[in-house]
Design a protein that fits this description.
By secondary structure, the chain is mainly alpha-helical. The protein has one domain. The protein contains 5 helices and no strands.
């Protein structure tokens, strides 16, 4: 595989890293929107074992839902220029995915068996996003080390 093909494979993987985040955030945004709009009467409550919402929890859920939709859009925006906006992948890793992974571990310790599946998905997502960020960094580093062709300037 030549250098251009290698770079293209890396860029494809970087796009995959963005889209893993987009899909997971979108699913979370949809689930929290459904929960927010009908907090006591949905299948999501049964699957996720969500308790009925208090007024204080409802306010937090509104904020969380807005942030999930916003982060989905941010990842989609960053995917348009995946190398230049690679910092969004780093922000997705720390603090977003790191904190969510810690909370799922706490949920697992507290006895919610559903959290083990969520934790596994998030750890795989963390590895994919981390790899995407590292590949983007490597591309930038390699391009910054290449000599500039002075004959092409006018």
């Amino acid at each position: 595989m030549n250098e251009l093909q290698t770079k293209n494979v890396k860029i494809i993987f970087i796009h995959i890293a963005y889209w893993v985040g987009i899909i997971l955030d979108l699913l979370s945004a949809i689930a929290s929107t459904i929960y927010m709009l009908s907090p006591n009467e949905t299948f999501i409550n049964t699957i996720m074992k969500f308790p009925p919402l208090s007024e204080g929890t409802f306010v937090i859920l509104i904020t969380e839902t807005a942030l999930m939709w916003g982060w989905t859009a941010l990842l989609f925006w960053a995917d348009r220029k995946p190398i230049e906006r690679r910092g969004v992948l780093l922000l997705t890793l720390v603090p977003v995915l790191s904190i969510i992974i810690m909370n799922t571990i706490i949920g697992l310790v507290q006895g919610n068996p559903y959290m083990s599946y969520v934790r596994l998905i998030l750890i795989v997502a963390f590895a994919i996003v981390l790899t995407g960020f590292i590949l983007a960094q490597l591309i930038v580093k390699k391009e910054s080390m290449e000599p500039v062709d002075s004959s092409s300037t006018v």
